[in-house]
User: Which sequence fits this backbone?
């Protein structure tokens, strides 16, 4: 054996593009004293140009040739956690560096004067090498060694992904490499869809992780919208919901609605307006009209608004919901918490898809200075603040109830 034979190590990688799994580098050299037969060498090609079946056949053959030392190769795998830590370019360099270090151990000392050729344009410098590698682009179909390295890297990675497929059957890893197709995007809607092998530093994955969960918030007036919207939007994508047919007269209702819209606009929150079904309100509180404020009629009044909110949350597939009603010091907070719980259970009884059970957010918005914050906010932004609860039976309703009721019920 020629002691001065210089041996070329050829390197290619697989798995830079996919949104999950490792990057794999293969360093490979033909043994110049014992090469595989020329017919086999002629079959080497860019792994992407070969069928799955053909790649696997050639891979098996390459393994056999390595066993009788016709070729030397080493594979190094850098997982998705390292990719996220140091970025894909550096992770790829690390995979190649370790493959070079390890293949040198396999090559007999008399062949150890090596030079390295890499398929790619990254121009990495490796401290372990005396001379810089030569970089070539798109040669994996033209140079047999690069073709062989690309086949080994690709099939080795595919086999790893097939193992992961048993852990994550919903990712179809056994048949594709997650290069970020439309189908993959559709499979990533919620944080729970992200698995332990996804590359969380990749933009599409990051976007899903940073996406806030939705919450539907029933709002009863402008001032009481302030603290819930400000606080909830820190952690959620908030949708404000207006359904308050308990407010009379209509002009007062519209004034409060305008104040609500103003707060939504200041806070940049989307909102939904529901119909002003005032007749339904009077129907619901029938025979309870003259019960005291915070008494039975008010329970019915909270309940009809909370029920509508819970039903809408279910219809919109929004799991979390809550209300601004408890921001007001004039409302009975514990009573509302009980009602919320009731609607969570009642609506979920008919829900076959238990993965999306309703969950009310039991937050006492008015506590910890919440009420004062809402007062400061309304002063600062000149938000309309009402001076009675809402209906004509409110303790401090300024008009004559009978006149209004007659008007609405006949209208
Ligand atoms: S007093 Fe207020 S809470 Fe009670 S029924 Fe009237 S509008 Fe509703």
Assistant:
């Amino acid at each position: 054996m020629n002691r001065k034979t210089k041996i070329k190590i050829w390197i290619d990688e697989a798995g830079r593009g996919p949104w999950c799994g490792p990057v794999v580098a293969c360093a490979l050299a033909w043994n110049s004293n014992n090469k595989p037969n020329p017919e086999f060498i002629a079959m080497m090609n860019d792994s992407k140009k070969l069928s799955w079946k053909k790649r696997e056949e050639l891979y098996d053959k390459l393994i056999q040739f390595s066993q009788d030392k016709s070729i030397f190769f080493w594979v190094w795998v850098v997982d998705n956690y390292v990719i996220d830590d140091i970025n894909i370019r550096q992770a790829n360099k690390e995979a190649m560096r370790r493959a070079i270090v390890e293949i040198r151990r396999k090559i007999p000392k008399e062949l150890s004067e090596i030079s390295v050729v890499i398929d790619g344009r990254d121009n990495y410098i490796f401290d372990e090498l005396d001379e810089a590698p030569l970089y070539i682009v798109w040669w994996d179909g033209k140079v047999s060694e690069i073709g062989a390295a690309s086949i080994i890297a690709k099939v080795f990675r595919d086999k790893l992904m097939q193992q992961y497929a048993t852990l994550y059957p919903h990712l179809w890893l056994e048949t594709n490499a997650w290069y970020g197709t439309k189908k993959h995007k559709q499979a990533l809607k919620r944080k729970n869809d992200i698995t332990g092998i996804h590359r969380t530093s990749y933009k599409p994955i990051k976007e899903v992780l940073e996406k806030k969960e939705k919450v539907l918030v029933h709002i009863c007036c402008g001032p009481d919208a302030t603290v819930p919207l400000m606080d909830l939007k820190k952690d959620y994508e908030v949708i404000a919901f207006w359904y308050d047919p308990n407010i009379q007269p209509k002009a007062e209702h519209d004034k409060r609605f305008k104040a609500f819209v103003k707060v939504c606009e200041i806070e940049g929150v989307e909102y939904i307006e529901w119909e002003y079904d005032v007749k339904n309100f009077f129907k619901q509180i029938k025979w309870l009209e003259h019960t005291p404020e915070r008494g039975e009629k008010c329970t019915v009044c909270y309940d009809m608004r909370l029920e509508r909110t819970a039903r809408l949350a279910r219809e919109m597939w929004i799991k979390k919901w809550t209300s601004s009603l408890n921001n007001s010091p004039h409302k009975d907070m514990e009573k509302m918490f009980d009602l919320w719980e009731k609607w969570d259970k009642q609506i979920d009884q008919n829900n076959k898809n238990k993965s999306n059970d309703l969950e009310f957010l039991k937050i006492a918005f008015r506590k910890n200075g919440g009420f004062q914050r809402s007062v400061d906010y309304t002063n600062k932004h000149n938000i309309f603040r009402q001076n009675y609860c809402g209906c004509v039976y409110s303790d401090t309703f300024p008009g004559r109830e009978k006149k209004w009721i007659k008007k609405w019920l006949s209208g």
Summary: The first strand starts at residue 6 and ends at 14. Residues 6-171 form a domain with the Nucleotidyltransferase; domain 5 fold (CATH 3.30.420.10). Residues 140 and 147 are 4 Å apart (CA to CA).
